Amino acid sequence: MAPQTSLQKDKIRILLLEGVHQSAVDVLASRGYTNVEYLKTSLPEDELIEKIADAHFIGIRSRTQLTRKVLEQAPKLIAIGCFCIGTNQVDLQAATELGIAVFNAPYSNTRSVAELIIAETILTLRGIPEKNAVCHRGGWLKSAKGSFEARGKTLGIVGYGAIGSQLSVMAEALGMRVIFFDVITKLPLGNAMQVNSLDELLAQADVVTLHVPELPSTRMMIGAEQLERMKPGAILLNASRGTVVDIDALAEVLKSGHLAGAAIDVFPVEPRGNEDEFQSPLRGIDNALLTPHIGGSTMEAQENIGIEVAEKLAIYSDNGTTTSSVNFPEVALPGHPGVHRLLHIHKNVPGVLGAINQVFSDNAINISAQFLQTNETLGYVVIDVDAEYSDLALEKIKDIPATLRCRVLF
Ligand SMILES: NC(=O)C1=CN([C@@H]2O[C@H](COP(=O)(O)OP(=O)(O)OC[C@H]3O[C@@H](n4cnc5c(N)ncnc54)[C@H](O)[C@@H]3O)[C@@H](O)[C@H]2O)C=CC1
Ligand SMILES: O=C(O)C(=O)COP(=O)(O)O
Questions:
Q1: How many other β-carbons are positioned within 10 Å of the β-carbon of residue 81?
Q2: Which ligand places an atom closest to the C-alpha of 83?
Q3: What number does the ligand 1 atom closest to the CA of 214 have?
Q4: Would you name the residues annotated as active-site residues?
Q5: 303 and 347 in one domain?
Q6: Could you list the residue range(s) of the whole structural domain that residue 163 is in?
Q7: Which residues are in the ACT domain (predicted)?
Q8: How confident is the model at residue 1 (pLDDT cuts 50, 70, 90)?
Q9: If both were cysteines, with which of 117, 147, 234, 338 could 230 make a disulfide (CB 3.0 to 4.6 Å apart)?
């Protein structure tokens, strides 16, 4: 039988949005979490606020916006699972200040994105998007003009992280020369070379591909000016975030012929689900290969992500472990057979641990184990105590100033 927690598992409400893989539901069920509401799309803010009000856990992908306003109306929310890499759709500062842990799957879909970019590099260098569109209209564009091999061309990777660096190795296997720009000095893989500025990369690359997270510093990183700096006839690929590229300026340089092509997977505004219309200034431009944010959407990646993130949520719920959390101090906890476990999340200000320990000393409560970890904003204390004292201890430590959230696990 699944271990019992302070809250009966069937009372723990889990809201899964955006059609996360069935593997997530299966993992949760195997750990006793069956109170799951499963929706295929993201929700508009008002419906999200209504549904999140009594959720203990929420699982989302890249589309659901968990803003401060939404999170402030989720009094029971213990943790957020981003069943993807990006966490820009969550107001992480608000989640942290509210004591809500955030988890993601930082590596599961990186290979899928890298493979798509390799395919798009070859297809766009050959002018396939346009030739395909013309064939569909009954035309026949048999010509070698503007059609090139990938071999010997320069691939410029912006953001040399988990995706960018994998892509680098794959592109070299195709015979490409690889340069990259990153804000951090990175060990180049193979023969790749780091350049010192984005402008340097734009001036050299035949194909520019973006793999940065959405940050204030990456918003509109590729605007009209940067597009102009790209080589005439170059190609732009974006499978990072829609806000990184000025999409209207991109439409202009594709129409003017300054760029030979583009492959775009992410957009400033994306439909909430497959029933909604996709609107974009790139629609109807034949040399733009458009995909509906599917860089990470392969069966392999989605199944693995479902398992990985669901396990992180279940483990946090069952025993308090926060390993690889995006915003919480990381604590890997042992089991707690025979004792009750108190989880105390507080603002990281001086004196909280002292105040907690005072409660135990004043009330003569024996501590069997204690774990503490902090980050800049949060402190996370885990205390194992004899079962008979956990109610009293919980009551007392809840009242300590700077407390954000507190719960007990049986
Ligand atoms: N289209 C899709 O379905 C998918 C999109 N993504 C997007 O791809 C992004 C990148 O993913 P990973 O490679 O796993 O992330 P990562 O965090 O491993 O790598 C990001 C790299 O970008 C660098 N960087 C940050 N700011 C920069 C700047 N201003 N200029 C240059 N470099 C900068 C970082 O130093 C880091 O090396 C994710 O954040 C996500 O938004 C991820 C998976 C699927
Ligand atoms: O992993 C990411 O960051 C992605 O962009 C994938 O998003 P998705 O789960 O396909 O909505």
A1: 30
A2: 2
A3: 41
A4: 241, 270, 293
A5: no
A6: 110-290
A7: 341-410
A8: very low
A9: 234
